[in-house]
Amino acid sequence: MTTLLRRHRERAWDVAAIAFALLLVLSVAAGTEGMTTTRTVVSIVVGVVGAVSLWWRRRWPIEIAVALAVCTILTDAVGGAELVAVFTVATRKSWRVTTAVVVLHLAASMIWTILWVEQSIAYTAMASLAFLSIPAAWGIVVKSRREVIDSLRERAERAEHESNLRADTVRGLERERIAREMHDALAHRISLVSLHAGALEVRPDVGAKEVEAIASTIRLGAHGALEDLREILGVLRSGVAASARPQPGVADIGELIEDSEKAGTRVSFVDELPSGATLTPSVSRTVHRVIQEGLTNARKHAPGLPVRCGLATAGGELRVWLENGLGTEGFAAVPGSRSGMIGLSERVELAGGRIEYGIARRGDGVVYRLEAWLPCPK
User: Fold this and answer.
1) What are the Cα distances from residue 206, in Å, to 171, 274, 316, 354?
2) CB 65 within 8 A of CB 85
3) pLDDT tens across 69-104, in order?
4) What are phi and psi of 363, to 5 degrees?
């Protein structure tokens, strides 16, 4: 709609410019005393053609201006079209091109004076220069204003684009944070529920007491998962975490190990932290997440195999490690999103540490090892 309005406005200006040029043609035709009929006809025809040519002045501004300069040698009836052509060049081309066009028209006016008028060339030059300088200066001002407006519009569009990019980045980071929190909070409990339910499925001969114990574990795991989910959704709705439960830390590692052992995973934990060591909440929570992620992955990909993990200080850093055997190929493990280790790596880096994980060789075979280094407690 804006483009259509601009096009209509430009056409209206073109019609007004042609009308202005034709008025000057009529004024010249009205004062043709002393001129031959042939010259009068030529002046009127050239003037009308010059005025009509302004319709294409936006597409070929320099070409129209040069053609009108040539017409100026024949008659002064193209004076109005000449003004409009110089103005158009000034609004669309550089000041050097505008100056060249003005000089060209000035030379054409002087030639016209020599051929057709008994008048001083100096007077004609001064009059023509003043005559042509007005549209040229006006066009340069219009061009400068248009460039400023375009620059401001471009800057505003760039700022809006950058603002949209920042908003997209913030939304992406927020989605990653939510996904990481959901994974950390729910993957551990859901994997326990899945494994216990799988035990009931593959062991139909389980006694009533065992079924009751497994069902109780599944109920507690599902209840804990719902609590975690309710907490995360509550934080997302309110935007604050004031009502959230205390975040788990090193003190809750025992509960993780107990849950894993109930699910059939033997876990040996070695705590070599110095007595009285105090961890910051961020480091304590990260240690808990490292152990939690390692135990969850062990249950998923190496069910039934023993897991060794521990805490120690080495080289001025707190070392968290976990290793387990490799699972049997083809075992129907619990499916995973394959993004847990990526989120865990980001969490460790944010806490000021580093992390390594992958398959490693040990004296008794090949194991999967997860190891993280965090700022050492003081």
Assistant:
1) 49, 44, 50, 44
2) yes
3) 888 888 877 888 888 888 888 888 888 888 888 888
4) -60, -35
Burial 11-46 (b: 16+ CB within 10 A, else e): eeebeebbeebbebbeebbeeeeebeeeebeebbeb
pTM strictly above 0.85: no
Q: What tens digit of pLDDT does each residue of 197-223 get? A: 766 666 666 667 776 776 777 777 777
320 φ, ψ to 5°?
-115, 125
Q: Which residue has the tokens 């009285």?
A: 276
Angle at the Cα of 71 (from 68 to 73), degrees rounded to 5? 125
Whose CA is closest to 333, among 221, 129, 191, 137? 191
CA distances for 93 relative to 85, 143, 152, angstroms = 12, 8, 20
Please give the sequence-ordered ranges of beta strands (E in DSSP) within the chain, or none if there are none: 267-271, 307-314, 317-325, 354-362, 365-375
b/e for 98-125, b at 16 or more Cβ within 10 A? bebbbebbbebbbebbeeeeeeeeeebe
Give CA separation, 205 vs 199, 208, 259, 303, in Å: 11, 9, 23, 21
- The token duo for 124 is 């004609």
Rounded Cα distance between 374 and 277, Å, is 14
What is the three-class DSSP state of 88? helix
For the record, the structure tokens of 62 come out as: 């320099």
Cβ-count burial of 59 within 10 angstroms (0-12 exposed, 13-18 middle, 19+ buried)? exposed
Collapsed DSSP state (helix, strand, coil) of residue 320: strand
Which residue, among 336, 188, 199, has the nearest Cα to 258 in the 3D structure? Answer: 188
Tell how strand 267-271 and strand 317-325 pair up: unpaired
